[in-house]
Design goal:
The complex is a heterodimer. Chain A is an all-beta fold. Chain A has no helices and eleven strands. The chains are: A mainly beta, B mainly beta. The interface between A and B is medium-sized, with 27 and 24 residues.
Chain lengths: 112, 110
């Protein structure tokens, strides 16, 4: 059974139109991460939550926001998607530092 | 600083061994990981090694760590076509963050 679930698998949005990607987990892990992965590149960490504590990476654009209403769910909001935001967005969870991270299948975002 | 590098491509014949290399710069890395990513999918943890170990073997996988040179390798014995994927090494440095390498695309041909 899938433990980290991302919906939808594929998302098409219009340039400038807000979009939300969702992630849920059944592992009860403390940490939830959002990574952006562009074609042929390494996953790049955007931000992560340790419980309710939000940790933003210094180079994450303001256009990207996140919400974690409870342990199980975490959302990635892109306020005004640009063409350069087209990528695979990966959600992951872990129990904390130096533990295995479990990844979802990803959401591939297309901006038209 | 945090920087993890890998060679981009590796091509091997089915049945041969594959060796994927990774270098990292942060000497305070505590755990180093190898993840596999198949086309259009998320990342799957293959194996990991704690920084005070030199080697770890897990079935067809052997991880070697040279801490002095900050070099990590993954050896896949008897490589199969199903092993074709992108392999990422990653480090964690006593934080909740995983820093990924650039990925090595492994192609296995018959």
């Amino acid at each position: 059974d899938a433990m980290v679930i991302q919906n939808p698998r594929y998302q098409v949005t219009q340039f400038g139109k807000p979009v939300t990607l969702s992630c849920s987990q059944t592992l009860n892990h403390n940490v939830m991460y959002w990574y952006q992965q562009k074609s042929s590149q390494a996953p790049k960490l955007l931000f992560h939550y340790y419980d309710k504590d939000f940790n933003n990476e210094a180079d994450t654009p303001d256009n990207f926001q996140s919400r974690r209403p409870n342990t199980s769910f975490c959302f990635l909001d892109i306020r005004s998607p640009g063409l350069g935001d087209a990528a695979m967005y990966l959600c992951a969870t872990s129990r904390g530092a130096n533990t295995e991270a479990f990844f979802g299948q990803g959401t591939r975002l297309t901006v038209v | 600083g945090e920087d993890v590098e890998q060679s981009l491509f590796l091509s091997v014949r089915e049945g041969d061994s594959s060796v994927i290399n990774c270098t990292y710069t942060d000497s305070s890395s505590t755990y180093l990981y190898w993840y596999k990513q198949e086309p259009g999918a998320g990342l799957q943890l293959l194996t990991y090694i704690f920084s005070n170990m030199d080697m770890k073997q897990d079935q067809r996988l052997t991880v070697l760590l040279n801490k002095k040179d900050k070099h990590l390798s993954l050896r896949i014995a008897d490589t199969q076509t199903g092993d074709s994927a992108i392999y990422f090494c990653a480090e964690s440095i006593d934080t909740d963050k995983l820093i990924f390498g650039t990925g090595t695309r492994l192609q296995v041909f018959p």
